[in-house]
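Thread: FAD binding domain-containing protein, structure

OP (GT): Posting the sequence first so everyone is looking at the same thing. Length is 198 residues per the record. Can we get the C-alpha cells written out before standup tomorrow? I want them in the notebook alongside the other entries.
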Amino acid sequence: MMLMSYEHHSAAESIDSFRAACADLPPIFAKASSGSATSEAQTYHQADSRRRDFTGLANFPARLIAVGDAVASFNPIYGQGLSSAALHASCLSEYLNSNPDLTTQATSYFTSLQVVVDAAWTISAGGDAARQDLLTGAEVPEPVHHQRWAMNQILQATLKDRSIAEAFVAVTRMQAHPNTLQDPALLERAVALNRPTP
C-alpha cells in the first residue's frame, strides 16, 4: 500500500502511524492496512519531479548519453520511474540500431527521449502542479484550466466505465501517450457519464 501526504501532513514513518492515517480515510483503507506487515514503512527521500533538457545543448560530448533519473525523475507516488527508464532504454536501442555517427553528439536520441519525458511529466508533474495551485489558490491560464477540467472528467468516469478506466490506466502505465485521453469521443462519453441524472 502507498499513501501520499502533502502540505502540513507528515509522512507515516511507522506501521502504526501508517494505519492511523488509513483510519482517517474511507473504511476500505483501514481494512486494506489491517493485515500483517511484510516490512517497515518506507518514506521517499525525493518526493518531487525533476527533469534535465539535453535537446537544447549545442556542445554535448560525443559517445555520451543520459538515461533514467539522470534525464528525469518523478514523484514516486505515480509509479512511472521504472516505466520511463525502460522507455529510455528503448530510445537508446532505436538510436544505436540506426547506425549513428558516434563522433557527434546523440541529438536524435535526446529528441526521441524528449517525447517519453514529456508524456511522463504530463501525468506526474501535472498532477502535482494542479494540487499545488489548488492549495495556494493560484490563477492558472485558461488552456491549463480546460485541460484540468477534462482530466477531472476522465478521472470521475473511470469509476463508471471500464473502457475509460482502461484508457486511463494505459496512460498511467505509459503504454499509451497522454494525448489519447484528449480524444473528443472519449471526453464526450466521460462528460455524459458524469452528468447528474434528472
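GT: Both are above now. Quick notes for whoever picks this up: The beta strands are 50-51, 72-73. The first helix runs from residue 15 to 23.
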